[in-house]
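Worked Example 4.2. Consider the chain below.
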Amino acid sequence: MVPSLSAASPEAQARVYLFRMKNSFDLHLAHRLTESGLLTVVTDPQEADYILTEGVGPGFEEAMKRLYKRPEPTEPEKAKDEAASESDERKSSSAMVVSGATLRPSSFGRSAGTVFLVRRDDSTVIWSTFLRRHDSREEMLNKNAGEVVKRLKKRMAEEQKAEEQKAVMEPNP
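Applying the procedure from the previous section yields the following structure tokens:
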């Protein structure tokens, strides 16, 4: 079971792995997260419940596939998947011919200053923030990392409060 995003107690702290970020921002973020005690930073991606990254999209998906290889499907599952794949390929190739559109690299997923918190199990982005990082001096990167942690902490506190209010509103059996 993946721990809640809220960090009510040290035992329930979520574990997070940080992907490499521009200007080594990941190192500053790891420092600030560790210093705050908000999340537990892990160096082994296999131990992570969540991933912090500044990019999502095809590149991120490929990295996730490399890090978290899924078990090989059984023979009946393989046959079913291959049949579905062939059907999808026929549909997509006919759609490309009809529309005449060409595939271009997507700008989706990477923006200097955006940080995404992604649930490892299903690659769902559960939180993100944008903080323009004009300055790559160490003290500014550290300050910006502190601001990202502050925003995440605020979100987690809001979630905790909402859960507590929900518990109070629900009638006891």
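Residues 162 and 168 are 10 Å apart (CA to CA). The radius of gyration is 20 Å. Compare this with Example 4.1 before moving on.
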